[in-house]
Structures are given as structure tokens and as C-alpha cells.
Amino acid sequence: MYPSFSLRFAAAAVLLTGAVQAQVVFEESMTNWAHAGSTGWTDNVTVAGSKGAKVDRLDSVAVLNYTRTVNKLKKGHYVATVRIQKFKSTTGTAPLTFEVLNSSKSKEVTIPFSQYGEKNKLLNKWSWIQTVVFSVPADNAPIIFRLSNLDAKLTKTNYYFDWFKVGRIPEGKVLKYQSLDWSYAPWSGAWQGSRYFKDHVAEKTSAFGEVAEPNGLSWMEHHSYYGWNKTQPKHDMILQPGTYTYNYRVFVPATSTRTFTLQHLVNSGTSPSWVKRAWGPKEHRTNAWQLTPNISFVVTKANTPVRFIFKDTNSGAKFQYKLDSFMVRRGSFDVSGTPCKSSLGLVSLTGNMPQTGEPFTVSANNAPLVAVFMIGASTLQVDLSSAGMTGCTLYTSPLLNLPAVSVKNVATLSFPLPNNTALIGVKFREQALVLDSKANKFGAALSGVATGLIQN
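Predicted structure:
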């Protein structure tokens, strides 16, 4: 249902400054971790290729319970992962549960070797396991991390535990946040690990500290799962009923001419039908980091498998693009309709996910001076050409108008949504009005319209 706009989304909208940047905020050797019992372990072993020079070596244990408490993080949203290696053989491989034992209690389970398209793909190789996202409720709150397999019937053998990393997530509440670098589970892709793909490129604005970069390849196909055909085992993302939105964080070079295809497949166990969305140069901000457009989808059944692909398999070598992260969030902010032109070009509207207790941020580009963000509940389609706004369409009747001053022709407004569960399920419409005396007789231009859904 639509909101009662007496809430006005926020009692007083405020422009927020000092936005959080993605970055690695804590990392250390896993030799600082504690394991239950000493039998079956050899600690502080020197291993070539480890980040910390020394590792903890698991020789043979029935019960694995490996923990670390951290109380050095500020209030906010984070992603964590650990770097491990299974060595010698696949014997003694176990699904390892990586979890954060705070109030939000989030966890991921590593992919068993039996689920890899290539069984020995990560044997004797370092790998960052599936990332786990979590929130810190207050500065310096104690957060417990655990890596475990408590099945005493399954003997675990021959693991190295090397490095632990925590990154700050700036996009708000995130359900999944994964690196697109080659050695981070679960993503895999064509030509990764070859001379046509650079891995572990240092990037300080990444929550993982490193990104992947195509290095001249033509066929690029990046999958959120292992297994490339029906004969190979699968590892899909499993989601529960609700509305979700996904994005990729990508650096587009100055000379971008590529069109990428963003694909998702809901419920791959039945007749699969990939949903595809082209992301081309007209939507790119060149020589800049950006999120790809919001793409929402709906899951209707419990434990539904979902897959994602980022690709450009057209001829022509790709250079200087950088692939950082992939995220799935609850809710939606889908932009549709036809924008009209200011004196600088088409006015486009972008926004993050509206979530209770979180800043909600919207932006309008090609805004020379000021943009007014109009929030409403109704659905309209009124041609304003007769009013002097040639080619402009009004898509909602505004009940709330929030102005923002442009900086480098982009107007951005951020305000906190109340931490009120009554807002869950609320839908709204939003459109940007750009003031520009050179645009037309009326002196303003309109963006397309976004339909938002709050669903934490």
C-alpha cells in the first residue's frame, strides 16, 4: 500500500555529508584466532604465499571451532571473509560455516569440493571463502566471528588458515555482498586466472581492497555460481520470498564503448528463463566508479535458487574496466518512464534502496543549478509540452518536494528514513524536477519516475 504522507518520510529531511566509503577497515593473520583444543593443530607454520607469512595448520580434527572477537569497529555495515587453503588432497574436505555471532547472526557456508565444476579447482590454492555481511550496533561493540564444522562424524584434514579481512559497506543494509575478484568464492568466469584477466588489482575504495580487471579479453562472462553446464554441480544463491534488487560496482574507463548484459535467473530448477538488461555507454559515467542500474526481481517460494551473470561476449578487447563487488538488497527503487532534456542533456534519476533506519539517497544528473525531488503516491502520465516543457511528462502528483543544490551538474539529496516497522511494505513514486532557464520556455526539465518499495 502507499504511505500516509503525514510521515513525510522523515520529519525533517537533511542533507548528509561525510558519506561512508568502502574500504578495508580491519585485517590480520588468522594465527590470532583461537581454536578449541590443541590436538590436531600445528600453529604458526611458515607457508609460502601466505599473506601473514605464518598460518595455523589444521592436520586432523573431528570438531572444528575456530573463533575471534573484534571490538575495534565503528557503528555501520560490514563484510568479512577469511583466506584458506585445502592442501594435499580433497580427502577430509568439509563445508565450513563462517558466521558472525552478534545480534544479527549472519552466516555463509563454504562450497564443498563436490560442488565445483572443476573438482580440484581450489586444491593447493589460496581462496577467500564466501563473504558474510553483518552490522555493528554501536562503536567498539564486541563482534564474535566463528569458522566451524561441528559434525564429529566428518574428520577434517589438511587446511591452512591464513588471513582475516573486514570491509566497510557504504550502501546500507545488504543481504549479500561479494567480491568479483577471481579468488573470492563463489564467482567464476571465462578467462579469469589467465593473462587476459588481471586479478588482485589494489583498490583502496573497495571493501575488499582489491578488484579484477579485464586485460584484453573479448569473451567475458562472469557467473555467481560454479558449474557451466547441466552435467556440472551447481551452487546457487538461495533466497526467501520477497522483493530484491541487485547491482554491480564497476569502474568504467574514459574510452568506454562496451555494452554489458546483466542477467538473472530465478528458480533455475524449473524451466529457466534468463531476464536480461543491457547496460550501455549512454548510461555510463566514464572514468569513474559507479553502481550499475537497480534491477529488481521477486521471489515467491521458500528456498528459491537464483543465479546472476555479468557479461560482454561481443568481439573487441576490453581493457581498463574494473570489477569490484556484487550486492543484493531487499526492496526496490526502479526507474522507468521517459526523461526530458535540460540544457546539459537528459535528466536521469538514480537512488539507493529505501530502508528504515538508513539514509535514503537520490541523485539527478544534468542539473545545472538545483533539482527538486518530488515524492508522491499517485500514478500519472501527463504531457507537459503545452505548458512549455517540451517532451516532459509528469508521472506523479507530488506530496513532498525536497530541493538539492547541484555539484558538478549532479544534485544529490540524502535523508534518513525513520526506523519504524510500519514503513515496511510502503510504496512510493519519485521524480526529479531540474530548474534550468535554458532548457525550455518553462525553465525546467523532468526525469523519469522511480517506483520505490521499502522492504528491509
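Summary: The longest strand covers residues 156-169.
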